[in-house]
Amino acid sequence: MAIIRVENLNYQYPNSDTQAIDNVSFEIQAGDWVAIVGHNGSGKSTLAKLLIGLMAADSGKITIDGQELTPETVWQIREKVGMVFQNPDNQFVGATVADDVAFGMENRSVDRDTMVTKVDQALAQVGMLDYKNREPANLSGGQKQRVALAGIIAIAPKILILDEATSMLDPRGRQEILSVIQDLKQQLNLTVLSITHDIDEAANADRLVVIDDGRFVEEATPKELFSHGQQLVEMGLDVPLPEKLKDALQQRHVAIPQSYLDERGLADWLRTSRLNK
Amino acid sequence: MNKVMFGRFIPGHSWVHRMDPRAKLILSFLYIAVVFFANDFWTYLIMTVLLLASVVASAIRLGVYIRGLLPLFWLMIFTVLIQVFFGAGGHVYWQWGWLVVSQNGLNSAGLILMRFVLIILISTILTFTTQPLEIADGIESLLSPLRRLHFPVATLALMLSLALRFVPTLMDEAEKIMNAQRSRGVDFGEGGLRQRIRTIVPILIPLFVNAFNRAIEISTAMEARGYQDGENRTKYRQLKWQRVDTASLVIYIVSLSAVIGLRYFS
Question: Is residue B211 part of a domain?
């Protein structure tokens, strides 16, 4: 079942003469991890904001979990969607960790006793319970993003949108956040929509939606997409590490299969090809 | 910046630390109001004893409080000297031109000094023992009756807590901008007044622009998390009025009534 359906979406920023989103249509199936990829300024973040009604599309139709996005349904739709933004500092609303996790619940008029238990549960799930009474100034970027995730767990949405949520973190913080999300997705049966230009992160998704200058290019599995190789570079995207290695080997005239290989696949191939010699 | 103790919070678990911020706010305001009723030895004695008892109950060393007073030292000296030399009336001890040291002058100088110290110390106890957040919560709770007059208490409270939350973030940012400008050759704290004011601009404008961007991002994030407006929200933080608060309130009311009683009925 398609949980997110976007049909012929158009959007143009008031002071711009090009379309930020140009006739985009795609579907996302429930329970999938989908990455939207594209170079900087390709319209990924605009798309995310349109999806939860933070900006109104000029034309087109967005349906989320069977409900069409209109000014009347926007708050109901936001109940179903949790969003983590890029800058960890600018989405930390609460004065302490616990307050921030409770913020979304406060907005939904959850009663206090429920809030108290849910805050603890959510913080335990992201491994931040010991930091419950800390203030944001004393936390690292990765820790702040974990708190943002806890705030989303507490309201148990069906869809999680990550708007470049790991782009301001160090490699370790990024790995940690991604593995926390991986776990949550399993437990809560979430649909994850991650917007990213980090191609290694995108390689872990079930499906990829490629956006270029506001236009929908294609929807594919990572395997299908990364076999395009050079075409990706022309779109302003990077290729994952195994593809780069393959490319470098090809330039040194090593015969290597054309199909996409992930890290393990490539390692296996290298090992077997060495043994054959 | 490290020398300024005024307005700081010092963590602890004392009697005063455990008190409800509302109680502390009410008591401080009451105390400050009553300071202006005290006018002789006995009333000031009561006020001083009450204050020292509170200082002891806060379990913070007196030295820390005195350090809190230091930045205001020159202001105190200045006011006292003005009172000493320009307060006329009563027995004249010393005179030189229009400078007169008289009995009334000395009296009112002593009075002003006492008031100064007492008011600053009581507010220092409040800020030493109460987190800024708690103060914000306390103010919100105390203002809540204004809701009937359609005063946006919840919005004010949110503004206050967001402002407090971003103080350290903005301080860090200001520091970063300063260092960034320094590395590009801006020299802070050099030259005359005009030059110094001019060097502030390259800090202020980026800070201002960043604050706007931040505000946009925060409001987007808040809206995405379902924030509609101040009303119809439940609250996670809760203030609890405990026995400590009632006990302190009783002690304060008894002592402060004694002061007012001595002033008017003796």
Answer: yes
Co-location of B207 and B171 in the same domain = yes
Going through chain B in order, the beta strands assigned E by DSSP cover 92-96, 99-102
d(CA A88, CA A80): 22
* B231, closest residue in chain A (CA to CA): A107
List the domain range (segments joined by +) for residue B172. Answer: 152-225
Residue A27 or A200, more confident:
A27
Distance from CA of A71 to the nearest CA of B (A): 13
Name the residue facing A137 among B168, B222, B232 (closest C-beta).
B168
Residues B65 and B195 grouped into a single domain:
no
CA distance linking residue A53 with residue A63, whole number of Å = 11
Of B118, B10, B26, the residue nearest B69 (C-alpha):
B118
User: CA-CA distance, A72 to A78, in Å (whole number)?
Assistant: 12
Residues B109-122 have a mean pLDDT of 89
Residue B147, domain member (yes or no): no
Q: Is B195 on the interface with A (CB under 8 A)?
A: no
Chain A positions in Cβ-Cβ contact with residue B164 (cut-off 8 Å): 95
Q: How many domains does chain B have?
A: 2
Structural domains of chain A in order of their starting residue, each with its CATH number: 2-225 (3.40.50.300), 240-276 (no CATH)
Q: What is the pLDDT of residues A100-151, one digit of tens each?
A: 999 999 888 899 999 999 999 999 999 899 999 888 888 998 999 999 999 9
